[in-house]
Amino acid sequence: MRKAIYKPPKAIRGGIPICFPQFGSHGSLEHHGFARNRFWSNDTDPPPFPTNSKSFIDLILKPSEEDMPKWPHSYEFRLRVALGTGGDLMLTSRIRNANADGKPFTFTFAYHTYFSVLDIGY
Questions:
Q1: How many domains does the chain have?
Q2: What is the spatial distance between Cα 22 and Cα 26, in angstroms, rounded to a whole number?
Q3: pLDDT for 45-90, tens place per residue?
């Protein structure tokens, strides 16, 4: 990660590529959302997440003033990143509507993963 460069508004390369909230056309910055361009905080009061791992971190993302013009909803995006006993990486996401008025809103999100392959001919 030493070669990763963080220069907003571009997404950092590497890490966990979370696309939230997804809106707009495919290929646009909005399609990938803003979560991957934000600093997340340690979640000091996480809800119970089922996990068999002893090695994990709980993260939380809440809206910022910068998000409001394009995404006028209050939310809490919680993410547990856990390392399994066999070295497997496990991600558990929970997104909560935190709007004071309780009105529902629609959203989509995705993990935009990249896999290293030896030969794309298969």
A1: 1
A2: 9
A3: 887 777 677 788 899 999 888 888 888 888 889 998 888 878 888 8
122 within domain boundaries: no
Q: Residue 101 is part of which domain span?
A: 18-111
Tell me if 13 is assigned to some domain: no
Query: Does 10 map to a domain?
Result: no
Q: CA 40 → CA 33, 34, 44, 118, 119, distances in Å?
A: 14, 12, 12, 33, 35
Task: Look at residue 46 and tell me if it is in a domain.
Answer: yes
Compute the average pLDDT of residues 95-102. 82
> What pLDDT, on the 0 to 100 scale, is given for residue 59?
92
Q: Cα separations (Å) of 120 from 98, 115, 116?
A: 43, 11, 10
Q: What is the pTM of this model?
A: 0.73
Q: Pick from 96, 94, 83: which is nearest to 59 by CA?
A: 94
